[in-house]
Structures are given as C-alpha cells and as structure tokens.
Amino acid sequence: MKNKIIYLLVLSSMLLAGCFKQNHPSSSNNQSSQPSSGEQSSSEEKSSSSSSESTRPKTGTTTIEVYSTNDFHGAVEENGYEVGLARWGTFLKNKNQSENTLIIDQGDTWQGSIYSNFNKGALLTDVMNYVKFDARSVGNHDFDWGQEYIAINKNREYEGYTTPTLAGNVYDYDFEHKIEGTHQMSNLGTTSVTYVLENEVKVGILGGIGTSQLTSICSSFTRDIYFKNHVQFIKDEATKLKNEEHCDIIIASIHAPQDEVMYNGLSSYVDLVLCGHSHAQETGKEGDLNYIQTYAKGQSIGKTTITFDYATNKKSNVVCSFIDSDTIKANTSTIDTTVQGLINQYNNQSKTEREEVLANNVSGYFYSGGSKDFGYAPNLMCRAIFDKVAASGYNVAIAMTNYARENLINPDDPTMLTYTDLYRSFPFDNIIYIAEITGEEFMKELGYSSNYMYRNPSFTSDAIYSTQKYKVAVIDYLYLHINENHIYDYFSETGGSSTTTLNKNYREILRDWLRAGNYATGTELSAYDYTNNVWAHKKSNFYKA
C-alpha cells in the first residue's frame, strides 16, 4: 500500500503540515484566509520537506507513474469503446495500490448522462474519492449546474478521503463594471497540491482551466468569475512550487487542448502537462516537455512514466502512452465490489426515469448536427420548443438551439428511444428565453454550422429584414453567450430584450412533446421529417438586407 505524504501550504502563515494519503488530502492555496475544514489536514505536522531529502538516495534513478483521465462526462454505462464506470474505477483503484503512482483528472467528469446528471456528479465523486484520485481540475461542463455543485462535490468525502479539486486560475469578477478581481475562488478549488512519494520525490500538481473555456459555459453561471490566463497561471504557480515548496517534479493539469497550451515557453517551468476538453487522444512535445490528452468517456487512459535522477534532482526521461479500452477491459475481469455497490446505489435512484420509453416506432437516424446537412436531432428539438412556446401563448417567429451532444439513438434497439437516450443526446439543462432580436442577429447565428432553427409556418414565405425585430425562442446558452471579456457577442451587448423564460429545460420539453405525441404507443417518429431539405433554412430563400 502506498505511504504518500501530502503537504498543505497557507501563504499567510507559511505553515507546512504533512499527512498520510489515507487521511484528508491537503492542498496549496494563494489566499490569505485559512482553507475550509474540508481542506485542512488533521494529521501530524512536519516542519519542512527537507527531512525527506536527508534520507533519500544521492545517486541513481527512480520512476513515477502518472495515470491521467479527462472528459469522462458521466459515462457510467459500458458502451462500445466506453468502458463504463465499473471498469474505469476498478482499473484505476488497482493501479493506485502501487507505490510512486499518481492519478489525475483534467475535468468535465460529471456531466453527460442521466446516470450522473441525476445525482449532480455525486456518484462520480464518490468513486473518485474511493479510488483516491490525487487531484482533479475543473472543466467547463463542471459549471453546467452552477458553481454550487462544484463546491458541494469538492467537499464530498468517501471513507475519510476527498480528492483535491484544482481551480487555480478561477477568480472573482465584477460583471457590471467589467473589472477582473484578485480573489482566487478557493470555494471552487485550490491552486495546487504537493505530495512526497514513497521514493521521497516531492511532486507538485497545479491545475486550472483554459481561459477561452469561459465562452463554452452559459454565462448565467459565470457572471461573477473569470479565468485568468492559464499560461501565466502555470508559470506563476510552478515558480512558487519550485522556489517555495522545493518540488522536484511539477505537473500541470489543465482543462484545455494542447494547441492552447503548447509553445508558450513552459518547458522551464513544468515537467509534464495533462490536457483535456477537445476529446482528442494526443501527445506532444515542446523541447523536453511532454503533453498528453486521452479520448473522452473512458475510452482510454493516459499513462506517463517519469524517470527521476537523484543526482541532478531532475527528470531524466518521460514516456507518454495510452491504455486503450480493450486493455482496460482485459484487466478488469473482476469488478471492485465497492465501485459496483456505489453504482448500484445511485442507479436505483434513477431507475424509473432511465427506463421510460418515449418512442417505439422510430425510423431513420437522428444525427446530432455540427453540419447543416445532418442536424435531425436539433431540428426535432427546435420543433418541440416551438410547440411548447406556442402552447404557452407566445407567438414567435423562430425557435433556435444548437447541435446535440450525440446522435439521438438507442444503441441496443434503433427503433425505440428512452429517456436515457434523450439524456445522452441532450445532457444540458438549457432553459428557453423568449426574446426580441434583429434579423441581422438571427442570420448571424444561423450562419454558424452548429445552430439550428424551426420557423413559424405562418412566416415561411416572408423575408427576414436585417433591421426588423423578431420574437424568438432560444436556449439560454446562445441568448446569453459572452466572449472572454464578458461581452455579449451573439446577440446585442445587453443580451437582447428578453420578455420571459420557460421554467423547464429543453430536454424536458422534448420529453413531454414525445409523450404528448403518443410516440411511445405507436406513432411513427421519422428522422426524415426533420431533414434540412424539408426545412430549407437558406439565406437566399428569405433574407433581405
């Protein structure tokens, strides 16, 4: 069993406290205030890290194994290349029994399926705490339920252990005056965590989120925060870990793709960069600095072997590789009973909702979109939104949404759809705004390949004029979209002129629409009724400057 020592640094008092890993993990934070009780170590105090240096070898080498995951998106079910939470948790729990091992996640862990969304990430958090992840960084979709649930999950315990959450570059923000604050949001996560491993090598892990990820979160959840430049944050925090914490190895865990991190001169600051967000399995190298990101949803796990030279107090070699789904499955023939027990416990809570059949006479393929030629699922959503708005007494010209996360299909029986399938395709909790926008704003949004619309049949023969106002029903993510400077950039700078919002999120609207249409009792649901050729949303057909 590992005997890893963890350190907490509070800069205001410059106190170091050590604890064994099986107790509460401790973390590093730049704030002047004391950390919350969930972050405070209760174990015996160590005066400094130099005590470990006096006993470790002066020559020779040792190795550190780093297992990295990113963008799991609540993929609890085993589904094709997605190994499922039972195997994912079992595999990583087994690996974490070895000495000199670190397990680090790069965010977007919870959101994405009914199995996880139903409990707001509690299941995933409990499993990660049981596995004893050494750190996890926040991702953009971790904000999809608001900052509240990041804070709640950050403080969850399982058998006395809490995985340290890293949100080092998340700072407060004055939205009204557009002023960046100076307070790191320690309620959402700390800046870094340090460990002394069994080989007496001290490792610092810093973590945060890519600056541009602010634009991929509904702004109703980010008005009071901003993401400090992630490259500068890495440099600043790494300098602190090296000069003040005397770390031998420094790892950056950042929820951003490689191309947003590489080629910024980080090789003299950190020894390894773990990436996320783009779901690409990729490795890169900048000088002697390695980067790695895995596929999403547990389709692969990253493995990085760091060789450390005691004589030079530096890494001498780094090798990045991937563990594919077949290998994970082959090594998890026996599922960990605690992991499976947690899955069963939470799945029982959502059983009725998960198993509801919404349609049993489906024909064709409801593609997720991202291309105007294949957006049958979002077209279906637009129709449901339009009908809901009309039934609520609003006469709108247009209903608009963006593409679905995945194709809307049942993997076992394509002739039926369950609420689980609907959740997988539309996992977000977007609500609907009824607003007035200009024709120019509408056409700008329709110009993006990711956006879709349904037009009121009463207006299909009328041109849309750039300066005329139109009443639309649009999801909040589009309507309230902001850029990195917190400026509304999809619609008007004031966010348009909103008249009202609907209480239900758009997934529930489509669910109720399918129920009302009796699609579960035999009414045919044909994807071909929602093709773009039928809907014919072309600028040349109805737009007038």
Key phrases:
nine-stranded mixed β-sheet; alpha/beta; 15 helices; 545 residues
Summarize the structure in short.
The chain is of the alpha/beta class and 545 residues long.
Helix content: 10-25%
The average pLDDT score comes to 88
Overall form: globular
Radius of gyration from the alpha-carbon trace, in angstroms:
25 Å
Biggest beta sheet summary: 9 strands, mixed
Unreliable segments (pLDDT under 50, ≥5 consecutive)?
Answer: 8-26, 30-52
**Secondary-structure content class:** alpha/beta
Beta-strand segment tally? 29
> N-to-C terminal Cα separation, in Å?
70 Å
| Number of discrete helical segments | 15
Fraction in beta strands: 25-35%
Q: SSE layout and pairings?
A:
Elements (H helix, E strand, L loop, with lengths): L4 E6 L4 E6 L7 E2 L20 H4 L7 E9 L14 H12 L5 E5 L8 H4 L4 H10 L3 E3 L9 H8 L10 E2 L3 E5 L4 E6 L7 E5 L5 E8 L15 E3 L2 H14 L5 E7 L16 E3 L7 E5 L2 E5 L6 E10 L4 E11 H6 L6 H18 L2 E3 L2 E2 L12 H16 L6 E5 L14 E2 H7 L5 E8 H8 L4 E5 L8 E2 L3 E7 H4 L17 E9 H11 L8 E2 L5 H4 L3 H4 E2 L1
Helix pairs in contact: 2-4, 4-8, 9-13
Describe the structure.
With 545 residues, the chain is α/β, with parallel strands linked by helices. The chain has 15 helices and 29 strands. The strands form seven sheets. Strands 1, 2, 3, 10, 11, 13, 14, 15 and 16 form a nine-stranded mixed sheet that branches. α5 (147-154) links the parallel β6 and β7. α2 (84-95) runs parallel beside α4 (122-131), α4 (122-131) runs antiparallel to α8 (337-354) and α9 (376-391) crosses α13 (506-516).
